[in-house]
Amino acid sequence: MEKVVFITGASSGIGRETAKLFQTKNWKVAATMRSPEKAEDLARIADIECFRLDVTEPDTILSAFSQALERFGKIDAVVNNAGYGLLGPFEAASDEQIRRQFETNVFGLMEVCRHVIPYFREQGRGIIVNIASIGGRTVFPFSSLYCSTKWAVEGFSESLRYELEPFNIRVKVIEPGPIKTDFYSRSYDLPSGSEVDLYEPVFSKFKEFMFKGGDQAPDGSAVAEVIYNAVTDGTARLRYGVNTKGLLTLRRLLPEAIYRTLTKKIFLK
Length: 269
What we know:
alpha/beta; seven-stranded parallel sheet; 48% helix
């Protein structure tokens, strides 16, 4: 029986690679994004349909969901991938940037869930995959806003799992470490306030480390493989890591003071 996956943020990076992988596995793909006109090459692939969806605009979520159901007749899994990173000193972030970070990474993801849960409940099954981050289980310097959104996704997802299990709806969380995507170019933002200068040269060292790590990391296809496994493994497993480099294990095992020293040494030296 044909299956259908609904993906947000599918124009590039992890979302795009996920759409392509599911298509090769004989799934129908509703690939949603803010500007589908810019993804004509993706739309030309058989069994992939592109729909406009901006997670900060609830009307577009409802519209894309309705169009996907009209086109494919059903939805079996939803991958909440849309998001971006605001990196830098919290003090220098504007109100608009802070709100955008939460509207995209948290409230937008929740809004998609609000639309899909009633459908999955009536259908009697479904899978929700939320893309979090290694930064949702530990933290990095100059990532207070980004990490706080991903911690929110982790807590939301873990609690939601209990609520939805009786309806045969499974919740999965993907926790990527460094991944070579446009997160390090188009999909990240820097605080705009003049206070940024007060944090130099430490902030520059952090950016240098992050961008170098991104260049050397596996690409979005590595995360796509894990997402596909999470959707199809038939288990109740909640969390799936990708290229976490053992940091989550160290976070769990090391005393707080030692782990903090290690974090500073890795990211700021």
